[in-house]
Structure prediction request, 304 residues.
Amino acid sequence: MNSSIAQRRDGFDQWVHQINVICGAFSAQTLGDEFSGQIREYQSGALKLSFVDACQARLYRTPREVAAGEGSKYFAVFQLQGSACMAQGDNRVALSAGDITLIDASQPSDFTYGEGSRQLSLILPHSLVEQSLRFSRVKCGHRIAAVSPIATLSHHLILDATRQDNLSQQESEATLDAVISLLRPAIIHSEGADDVHERIFRKALGYIDEHIRCEDLCPERLAREVGVSMRGLYRMFSRKGLVVARYIKNRRLDLCAESLRQSRAEQKLSALGYSWGFSDSSYFSTAFKARFGISPGEYRKQYA
Prediction:
C-alpha cells in the first residue's frame, strides 16, 4: 500500500515538474487517490502547444507563480476528452469535450480536472492577440461551446496542424493567425455603444491605418483629426497600455514585416521603409531589428 502511494506521489511530482517546464509556473495538488497525468509538448515554428492528460488534480497560479512565470501570453484551452473546470477572476467555467476557453497567463487562475480529462493548451502571445483584436478587451474564463461553429472549426484546424510534418515558419504563423481570427468573435469584449472614449479610440486606430504611409503622421495630427486634446489622446491610449508614437511606429514596422513576408520582388529595403512612412533608412533598419530581433534583409531571407 505504502509503495503504491509513493509511486503515485512520484508520478504526480513528475507531472507537475513537466507542467512547470512546458507551461510555466504552477502549483498543484491531487484531489483523490486515483490521480494520473501526463503531458506531451508539440512545437512547430510559431505553434507551441501541449497535450495535458489529468485525473483528479488541481493546477493553480497565485500572484507568486504569475511573477515567476512568463506572463505575456494566453492559453487557448481546447477540451478534447473528459471534463475540467477553469477559473480566472470572477469567472468559472465547466468544460466538456469540444469546449474552449481562454486563460490569461499574466493573471491568477485555477484549473481542476475530473475523470479522464484531456486538453490541448495552445500558447497565444499577448501581442498577437491584442493586435488582432485591435486592443479591445479580451474575455477570459468564458466557455466557447462545442456546438458552436467557432469551436468546431478551431478544433479541426489546430488538431490538423499537429498532424502536419515540418510546418514552415510562415505556415505556422498563418495557422496561429487563423486560430485567433476564428476565436475573435467569442473572446472580444464588446464595449457599450455609448462608450465615447472607445469610439474615439477606434476612430484613432482607423485614421492611423488609413494614413500610415504618410511621413507626417504624428500624435499632434492624430489628436487634431479625431477631435481630442493631446492630453486626452495620450490618456486614451494609456488606458490600453499603449504609447501613441510607439504604436504608430510599431504599426508601420508590422506592416513592413508583412510586406517582406508576402512580396517576392527584391524591392530595395530603403524604398520599403519610405513606402511605410520611415524617412530615414538607418532608423528604419535599427527600429526593425529592435522589434523583430533581426534586420529587414535577414527577415526577408527567412521568408524567401
The longest helix spans residues 2-23. The longest strand covers residues 36-44.
